[in-house]
């Protein structure tokens, strides 16, 4: 065989090897078990809020933890390979979170809905939260911007918890929360419309 034939043969072999390895490498980032567990956790949190076993603040904190796990998983997959050790770490994080959610749901104390409720504020916060996540996915909101927006959201949650600590919320406290939520909503919408 001449040198040209050998070179072409080696190149063809390399091309076939790459074609065979590429799908296998792409499969190294699949984590269907982790993804399914995260969906189940989100559903359990929603059930907890609906049943009154989780307050909005507890749910927001749990959603934030779940997002942190999700970002850790994304970083893990970034290089195209999810090592067994990385998978175990994320699986452990997911299992710890599942245990925490179940423990909170097992708590027989139901969140009070009388006197201290702020359903309009809570609904607006949920919509803002979803809008921020949508902005991250669409690329309209950077991770840094999202972190600042989530920090403002947490501050509103802390203010709301402080206002509710005496078992009721005054008209002035309710108006303060509405104003802060409206301001945060405007900021999110400005970022979403900024191309």
Characterization of this structure:
The protein is an all-alpha fold and 195 residues long. It folds into 2 domains: 30-111, no CATH class; 114-195. It contains 7 helices and no strands. It has helices at residues 3-27, 32-51, 56-77, 84-106, 119-138, 143-164, 171-193. Helix 2 packs parallel to helix 4 (84-106) and helix 5 packs parallel to helix 7 (171-193). The N and C termini lie far apart (59 Å). The model is unreliable at 17-27 and 110-115 (pLDDT under 50).
Q: Which descriptors would you attach to this protein?
A:
flat, mainly alpha, 195 residues, single chain, 2 domains
Low-confidence stretches: 17-27, 110-115
Mean pLDDT: 78
What is the count of β-strands? 0
Coarse structural class: mainly alpha
Order of helices and strands: HHHHHHH
Q: Helical proportion?
A: over 70%
Largest sheet: none
How would you sum up the global shape?
A: flat
What number of structural domains do the residues give?
A: 2
């Amino acid at each position: 065989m001449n040198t040209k034939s050998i070179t072409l043969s080696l190149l063809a072999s390399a091309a076939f090897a790459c074609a065979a390895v590429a799908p296998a490498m792409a499969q190294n980032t699949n984590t269907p078990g982790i993804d399914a567990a995260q969906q189940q956790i989100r559903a359990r949190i929603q059930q907890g809020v609906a049943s009154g076993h989780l307050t909005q603040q507890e749910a927001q904190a749990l959603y934030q933890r779940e997002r942190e796990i999700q970002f850790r998983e994304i970083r893990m997959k970034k290089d195209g390979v999810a090592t067994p050790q990385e998978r175990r770490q994320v699986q452990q994080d997911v299992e710890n979170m599942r245990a925490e959610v179940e423990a909170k749901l097992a708590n027989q104390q139901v969140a009070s809905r009388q006197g201290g409720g702020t359903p309009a504020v809570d609904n607006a916060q949920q919509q803002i939260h979803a809008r921020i996540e949508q902005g991250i996915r669409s690329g309209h909101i950077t991770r840094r911007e999202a972190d600042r927006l989530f920090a403002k959201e947490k501050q509103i949650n802390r203010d709301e918890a402080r206002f509710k600590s005496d078992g009721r919320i005054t008209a002035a406290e309710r108006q303060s929360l509405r104003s802060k939520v409206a301001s945060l909503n405007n900021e999110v919408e400005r970022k979403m419309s900024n191309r």
